[in-house]
Amino acid sequence: MRVKFRKGATTERAPEKAIEEMAEQIGMPDATVTALFLSSHYDLDSIRRQIKKKISGPLICCTTSGEITDNGYQNSSICGFSLSGDAVSVSTFPITCIRNPDPHSVQQTIGQIKNVIQHDREFHPERNFFGVLLIDGLSVREEQIAATFGNALSDIPVIGGSAGDDLQFNRCSILINGEFMSEAALFCLFSTALPFSIVKSQHFSATDTRLVITKARPNERIVEEINGVPAALEYSRITGVPSDELGPASFSRYPLILRHSGDIHVRSIQKINADESLTFFCAIDEGVVLRVARRQDMCEALEKSLTQAETSVGKILFTLGFDCILRRLESREFSFDERIRNIFRRFNTVGFCTYGEQSNSLHVNQTFSGVVMGDLSGE
Question: Of 49, 267, 278, 329, which has the fewest beta carbons less than 10 angstroms from its beta carbon?
Answer without folding.
Answer: 49
